Amino acid sequence: MNKFRKYAGYVVMTLLMGTLIISFALWGIGDMLNMGRRSTEVAHVGGIHIPVYGWVGGTSVSIDEVRERFNQQLDQIQRQTGQRPDTAQAARFGLNVRALQDVVQRAVIDAAMADYGIVVSDNQVRENIAQNPAFHGANGKFDPLKYRNLLQQARVSEASYVADVRREIGSSELFGVVRTEGLAPTVLRDDIFKMESERRIAETVYVPDSIVTDVPKPTAEELGKYFDANKARFQIPEYRSFSYVLLTNADVMDQVKVTPEQVRQEYESRAAEFGTPEKRDVDQAMADSEDKAKAIIAAVKAGKTLEEATKEVTGSADGVIKLGLIQKKDLPAGALADEIFKLPQGVAPEPIKSPLGWHVVRINKIEPGKVTPFDEVKGKLEQDLKNQLAPDLLIKLVNDFDRELGKDGSMADAAKALGLKVHSVDNVDERGQDPSGKQVVLGTAAAELIKAAFSTREGNDSDLLETGKGEYYVVHTERITPSRTPVLSEVEAKVTQAWEGEQRRKLADQKVKEAVDKAGSGTDLAAVAKELGLEVRTTKAVTRFDVDTANHLGRPATQALFKLPVGKAQAVRVAEGNVIVRTKEIQPVDLAKEKEQLERFGGQLDGMIANDLVAQLLAALRAKYGVTVNEQVFEAAFQSQQPPQ
User: What pTM, to 2 d.p., does this model score?
Assistant: First the structure.
């Protein structure tokens, strides 16, 4: 009996352990293997997802690819505007979503190319890159150094660029089925062209609200009712008082040491920036022996031109090659370049030997180079070097400050320990303005400082944060004055001004309505304007996409103009008044006379329709393969950046 119990217990334990192992395999082992390891997959194109196991097949999109595309967009904005948005700003404009969609679209195209057997060879990629004019040197041929430099400037790896080129070539094959010619029906093309090319001339009268001068003063009852109905307009905003420490390159600039040797080296490395190189207009004749070359020079000395002498000696009428206006760097390094840029104007007295043969050179013109002396730019170079070195010292200062903050002290204590300046701001709203409306918080970091102050609790310090310009700051929110609805007596002047402004607009609108009715019933618009003490203006001929602000024809007025028949008028409300618009003349387009433009427009319309078809095809491919996005990974990747450690 004891043996039976022993064996039974053994069997039960075996079955129990087996069940646990299977359970772990089915439900828990994937989590155990992934503990402590964050997923970098933000999306998956195609494939089949098996719970616990993961994806089978398809293409994985990593968050690193999305970040790279996101940063490329920021680089492009910085090149165009000189300013680089921070991560939070860019995300508010949806650039992170756009980056994700771009990378997913690439993966969809790659999947379609593989699905339809589209293969792009390495030779095709190389030829495509070599034919790109952006990578051509002064000789008009592919320059590998320029190619690498441009990729480096754009912060694009060569592998990524090659993949993009391969994808672009494959896409042209994939979407080549969409032909642009003749997609737009002729009737549609003509109708749209006529609509877009039609021009109109308008008569306009600007009627400012200030034309009404006899606005009555509000009674106490009227003012009270108006205030009660519009209390939100007169809300007193929340105000905050805060202090902050802002660390910039200027805080460490006096610690940056630059030696005279470094400044001189910087000058030499940037020599091209401080001058223009010498240029020479050069012709040359080639000979296959020194004797022939000397014979050409002798004939020139005897009075013949270089062309005549070359033809006489070599028998070739095209023996003289015009190199044109060149710099020394345009020639192969060696004796030929050195001698050409030593010679005086005229034909060289001796031939020059190079690996290609013997050269007889004629210098037609010399444009001397201009060089800015070292002493004139020494100060600028020294400051540039300091600006380059300062960020490293700034990071050290930031880390020291962060270390002090970590000692359970306050921002003020940490600043005192390092001798940093603490700035104070008293009673400002979310725009950085004081109660009188004066802008108090100024500088490049103003927006970030205010945002931190209004997101930090009273009596607390913010985290150590970084601005988009590489500055670091901590904010201490000292006092919060909550927003509130005032009593009428506190804002009576503002309420009275607002009430009078509204009454003035109503009275002005009534005058304008009467004027429009008169103009629409046949009264001359000039006579209507004269009654109001105003002038009528005639605009230039405009399309529905044009404006003529000099004659009061803004975008809304233009839109109204193209809805009115000749002789009819309409009022358009603008910021401080109304513009009365009346159609004076309609100028339809003559399709026969504009045949060339019509054909060009038809081509553009075909292209737009083709783009729509390609977009639909892409959407169909995306739906075919399926796209799954990991929202948690995506959102975590674009949270506020942490300060340096």
Answer: 0.52
